[in-house]
Amino acid sequence: MYLTDLEDAGRGMHSLAAELYPLCRSITGAGARSTLQRLSEDIPLEIHEVRSGTQVFDWIIPQEWNIREAWIKDPKGHTVVNFTNHNLHIVGYSMPVRCIIPLAELKTRLFSLPEQPDLIPYRTSYYNKTWGFCLPHRDLERLEEGEYEVCIDATHSDGSLTYGECYIPGTTDDEVLISCHICHPSLANDNLAGIAVGVALARQLACRARRLTYRFLFIPGAIGSITWLALHPTVIARIKHGLVLTCAGDAGPVTYKKSRIGNAFIDRAMGHVLKTCGAEYRIEEFEPYGYDERQYCSPGINLPVGCLMRSPHGTFPEYHTSADNLEFIKPHCLADTLSKALAAFDILEHNTKYVNIKPMCEPKLGNYGLYGGGGGQRNCHFDELALLWVLNLSDGGNDLLAIAERSGMPFCKIQCAAAALDQAGLLRREPS
Ligand code: ZN
Q1: What spacing in Å lies between the alpha carbon of 184 and ligand 1's midpoint?
Q2: How far is the CA of 83 from the centre of ligand 1 (A)?
Q3: For residue 150, what pLDDT is reported?
Q4: Span from the CA of 152 to the centroid of ligand 1 (angstroms)
Q5: Residue 380: what pLDDT?
Q6: Which residues lie closer than 8 Å to 78 by C-beta, 6 or more apart?
Q7: What span, in angstroms and rounded, lies between the C-alpha atoms of 348 and 345?
Q8: Contacts of 409 (CB under 8 A, 6+ apart)
Q9: Rounded CA gap, 10 and 6, in Å?
Q10: pLDDT computed for residue 374 by the predictor
Q11: What distance in angstroms lies between residue 371's CA and the mean position of ligand 1's atoms?
Q12: Of 63, 315, 372, 400, which is most buried with the most CB atoms under 10 A?
């Protein structure tokens, strides 16, 4: 992508996040549904509903949760907490309640962050039936003794779990799975940034030539990937590479967490992109914690799915608080995450293996119009050192990514050099 296109994409992703920010998402319900509805305006998205009560492996799809209002009034009748001001004020999946209780009892239902007294924490209780509110610690400390009126107008009813799937076919059935969670309410880096990068990726890939087929899942965390995996046993075998996208928009360096396999092709491709990008990066080993890679990399599934993010969950002070807002994610950071994912997908698309057909000493490059560098006769500008690396390592044992890894040169340079050598008749392409 050109720089200006990337800048446009960054702004586009940020404004999509801004549109989705006010929706009260959860693992089921109207917020998740309207989020997917909005995404379907930008990409071809099939929205699926899976009925509450459906058994998915060891789990059961819960009842659908919908909330209309939630507030607390102090002894003088002033509203001191109101869900309409911020989605994070309510503990996600709270049971309905209407009662008058003394402050001491109310306090057992209130969650705050004494260390970050101005922020609202994010809390949920999906599988344990309870209710509660979240508020800044400063506000909690100001509450006076007395009787408080509490209202949560919410329903838990048989309905469904909603997820979205965007399928972009390539010329082969080999699939790349891209998965984003959509279950967090007003949190920008932790869910909206991944969603926005996912949508931008789908739009980019849709207008490129593709060998691989891309399947994007926009799903509630954990229960969504468990559901999808349980319902698609035959698709699983076609998935050759995958990425979970999350925390994709903050200013921290890009972080890649490897798949459980550890040296899967996606692990190598993402690792190579980061090592040659010229910017700070982090590569982490797999651990069975984090986002939906936990499910994709469970032992019975064991897909080559890594996790692409910037600052990992739990490592930044804004994590799971009201400070994970639209200011916390930056258009240029979203664009940077997008470009790194696209660079890795370029490797997935274009990796191949060649054999040098003149391996007895170096061929005289001048005889093939390849000496003096530049490759000005083509769109592709090859590098002389890249030509030498490709010639030297194309012995039948190394694919282009292996050559890029060993030379430390970006894959695209190695790919260009190989294309020039191929055209000059110095390489033979190995059947893949
Ligand atoms: Zn989260």
Answers
A1: 7
A2: 19
A3: 98
A4: 23
A5: 57
A6: none
A7: 5
A8: 276, 383, 385, 386, 389
A9: 6
A10: 52
A11: 54
A12: 400
Distance from the alpha carbon of residue 293 to the mean position of ligand 1, in angstroms: 13
d(CA 267, CA 190) in angstroms, rounded, equals 22
pLDDT along the chain (432 residues), means of 10: 88 98 98 98 98 98 98 98 98 98 98 98 96 98 98 98 98 98 98 98 96 98 98 98 98 98 98 97 98 98 98 97 98 98 98 97 93 55 89 97 97 96 96 78
Q: 72 alpha carbon to ligand 1 midpoint, in Å?
A: 26
DSSP-assigned letters across all residues of 116-134: STTSPB--B-SSS----EE
Q: Round the CA-based radius of gyration of the chain to a whole number and report it.
A: 25
* Cα of 15 from ligand 1 centre, angstroms: 21
The residues facing 55 across adjacent strands are: 60
**Residue 327, phi then psi, degrees to nearest 5:** -75, -25
From the CA of 239, how far away is ligand 1's center (Å)? 25
Q: How far is the CA of 231 from the centre of ligand 1 (A)?
A: 24
pTM: 0.96
Long-range contacts of 426-431 (CB under 8 A, 24+ apart): 426/356, 426/357, 426/358, 426/363, 426/368, 426/391, 427/354, 427/355, 427/356, 427/357, 427/390, 427/394, 428/354, 428/355, 428/357, 429/352, 429/353, 429/354, 430/352, 430/353, 430/354, 430/355, 430/396
Check if the beta carbon of residue 78 is closer than 8 Å to that of residue 100.
Answer: no
User: How much distance in Å is there from the Cα of 318 to the middle of ligand 1?
Assistant: 11
Domains of the chain: 3-61+160-349 (3.40.630.10), 64-157 (3.50.30.90), 352-429 (1.10.10.10)
Locate 101 and state its tokens.
Answer: 């209780």
- Alpha-carbon span 85 to 189, nearest angstrom: 20
Residue 198 CB partners (closer than 8 Å, separation 6+): 178, 180, 216, 218, 245
Residues less than 5 Å from ion ligand 1, measured at CB: 190
**CA–centroid distance, residue 236 to ligand 1 (Å):** 25
CA distance to 50, 104, 244, 366, 400, per residue, from 236 (Å): 19, 51, 15, 49, 27
Q: How far is the CA of 261 from the centre of ligand 1 (A)?
A: 24
Q: Would you call 417 helix, strand, or coil by DSSP?
A: helix
Give 305 Cα–ligand 1 centroid separation in angstroms.
19
